[in-house]
Write a structure and sequence with these properties.
71% of the residues lie in helices and 0% in strands. The protein has 10 helices and no strands.
Length: 214
Amino acid sequence: RYMRHPLVYLVEAADDICYEVMDIEDAHKLKILTTTEVISLLTSFFDDERKAHMYEVMENVADPNEKVSYLRSSVIGTLVHQCALAFIAHEEEILCGRFEGSLLDHIPALQREGYSRCNDLSWEKIYRASEVVDIELAGNRIITFLMEKLIHAVRYPQLNYSHLLLSKVPQQYDVNAPTLFGKIQAVIDHVSGMTDVYALDLYRKLNGMSLPAV
């Protein structure tokens, strides 16, 4: 029977926590979400006593972005702590492959509901915001283009264009693997490791939009 590696649950939780909470903070900086909206959202992870203390701290902070940064750090800290406790509490189930769901599904209701509210708001106001959708569409086009070009190159390396393109791939990626699976895996690893700036620059060069000075 297929079983997930125990560490996968920790990596998954780390990704979900950081991306979700950081997206809320980024949306605030972009003014997609208001300060009042974000403060209410991020303080909902805590009980009344902790919440009162957080409001006291924020009274001494004038910059709205710094207030949100403080809350973001607090939320990430408590979610990491609760996920660690969940992992320990369900260690035997995880090691035996009987654990179901993610670690975030097994944290206390207060934090679980706070995370759910963040997720719902992200889909409602952030990921569907016009400027975000425009970037998403452009990113999809760039990644699809690069994948198509690189996969074609590893399938037909004898072509001059393929030879030139593959010469730009770092040696850590084995585009000359003995199997087609290995070659395509190398392409996927290369593209997934690209930064946004590098991927955009390569896309422009391959399309003749950006040429080196002669």
